[in-house]
Design brief:
Blueprint (H helix, E strand, L loop, with lengths): L9 H22 L1 H10 L20 H6 L13 H4 L1 E7 L8 E6 H18 L6 E4 L11 H11 L2 E4 L15 H10 L4 E4 L1 H13 L9 E4 L6 H13 L6 E8 L4 E4 L7 E2 L6 E6 L13 E7 L10 E7 L1 E2 L12 E2 L4 E2 L4 E3 L2 E3 L1 H12 L4 E7 L9 E8 L4 H15 L4 E6 L15 E3 L4
Parallel strand pairs: 3-4, 3-5, 5-6, 6-7, 18-21, 19-20
Antiparallel strand pairs: 1-2, 7-8, 9-14, 10-11, 11-12, 12-15, 13-14, 16-17, 18-19
Helix pairs in contact: 1-2, 5-6, 7-8, 8-9, 10-11
Bound molecules: zinc ion.
């Protein structure tokens, strides 16, 4: 049986998953502090979980549960084989607004599986042995799995990689490069794959264009970490054409620290493929009943780790909505979980100036006008010293623009949410305070709660 990448049929995939799930439940019921307590509380035991169908007996795990006590989500591995006991590395999730990053622990056993996951991501995205990957992620004060896993991905497929080291991770760090140096490196190293955050890659391509540099060897662009719509993809495609990378493809990934990788496209628009279905189970559940939904229906995206020995999450709500299918991919034929709608954050509605505002709708409207250009929406008090002075909806946009753009943005935001924003053009993204995280948040609420 093939446990590594492709399955010949849905039944074969299910058989591999059932075996992994049974092993996982054996260790979870004996060694997982959080789920042991949860099962006691729910009156459940190992015998209740005869097959994957019974997984839905467990209540959902929410981000808040995990963040409140991350150590209770790590298995007690005493007495297990050495590779299942030894901590190989610890990554951190970015946490909620102003929160501490949450540790995600991988044993050696987990790390070997992460290598297989990363290799399958590269295979799905069409990397071959002659490729040269440019790692354009910045170093961050806490490792999130973006910067370091690019190196591991390259190792898993024996392909070349170099790190451009953009920016300064901290005042104690001196190895970072400015934009021009990064652009020069991408050219001189002959990068064929650019891998990073979309807004930064867009800046790299824009600067290369300004400097008159050509990057014809670039054939793939891997983006993750920020929401990216089709308008932004087509803007990036144009930026690629301007530097001579005419046929380069932009491949979007739905990534999370909890995956230690991401769900990727085999071709633009083909949906986000779970790269290692024997290891990760992706389900979509009803937001009210929390029960699994049939394929094709929209709901919350839920992750279950089928084969981990460090941090283990079962029925973990990632905080996004999407639609799943398990039908073979019409493009690459892969049989796996595929999310066929761009995942959207499940963000609660916010009250701004007395209006209920849906951040997702505001972001979609701005994406439509701004494409891949970096921006941030902030909700903040008009005067922090006077709590009753009211709120401001502020839109900061990177780069130049004229009064017409300012007016277009103001009108569009007002149209979709009823609140007239203040629009600031020419803002420096570094001043947005989001660069400590590689995921730049597009919508932040800066009001004290
Ligand atoms: Zn495919």
């Amino acid at each position: 049986m093939n446990t590594e990448h492709s399955f010949a049929s849905g039944q074969e995939m299910l058989a591999v998953r059932e075996k992994a799930f049974a092993e996982t439940m054996d260790v979870v019921c004996q060694r997982h502090p959080h789920y042991q307590a949860l099962m006691r509380q729910q009156g459940l035991s190992r015998a209740d979980f005869k097959s994957l169908r019974d997984l839905a007996l467990l209540p959902l795990t929410h981000k808040a549960d995990y963040m409140a006590a991350p150590e209770t989500f790590t298995l007690n591995t005493e007495g297990l084989p050495l590779e299942m006991q030894t901590v190989w590395d610890t990554m951190y999730t970015t946490g909620s607004t102003g929160g501490q990053p949450t540790p995600f622990v991988s044993t050696s056993f987990d790390f070997f599986n992460i290598l297989a996951l990363q290799r399958n991501m590269l295979r799905l995205r069409g990397v071959h042995s002659q490729d040269v990957i440019a790692n354009l992620f910045p170093l961050t004060p806490a490792p999130h799995g973006a910067w370091i896993r690019v190196l591991h991905a390259a190792a898993s497929m024996n392909v070349r990689v170099f790190c451009a080291m953009p920016g300064q991770a901290s005042p104690y760090f001196e190895l970072g490069h400015g934009l021009d140096e990064v652009v020069q490196l991408v050219q001189s190293q002959g990068a064929t794959v650019l891998w990073g955050v979309p807004s930064y890659i867009y800046r790299v391509l824009g600067r290369a264009g300004e400097l008159g540099l050509r990057l014809p060897s670039v054939r793939l662009v891997f983006v993750t970490g920020e929401a990216m719509g089709e308008q932004a993809r087509s803007d990036m495609q144009q930026a690629l054409r301007r530097v001579g990378a005419d046929s380069a493809q932009v491949s979007i990934s739905y990534g999370a620290t909890e995956f230690q990788g991401g769900l990727v496209e085999c071709t633009p628009g083909a949906g986000f493929h779970n790269p290692l279905p024997g290891q990760l189970l992706i389900e979509v559940v009803d937001p009210h009943t929390h029960q699994p939904l049939p394929d094709g229906e929209p709901g919350w995206v839920v992750l279950t780790h089928l084969q981990r020995r460090g941090t283990v999450l079962l029925r973990y709500a990632l905080g996004d909505t999407s639609v799943r299918t398990q039908a073979p991919c019409p493009h690459c034929g892969a049989i796996t979980d595929r999310l066929i709608q761009t995942p959207h954050r499940v963000d609660a509605l916010l009250k701004v100036k007395g209006m209920l505002v849906n951040p997702a709708v505001v972001l979609a409207a701005l994406d439509e006008v701004l494409g891949a250009r970096a921006y941030q929406v902030q909700v903040r008090p008009t005067d922090p010293a006077q709590p009753l002075a009211g709120d401001v909806l502020q839109v900061w946009v990177e780069g130049a623009g004229d009064a017409a753009l300012q007016q277009a943005l103001t009108e569009r935001v007002k149209q979709v949410c009823g609140v007239t924003p203040q629009v600031g053009l020419g803002a420096d993204p570094h001043s947005w305070g989001a660069d400590q995280h590689w995921k730049r948040k597009k919508f932040v609420d800066l009001r004290a709660h």
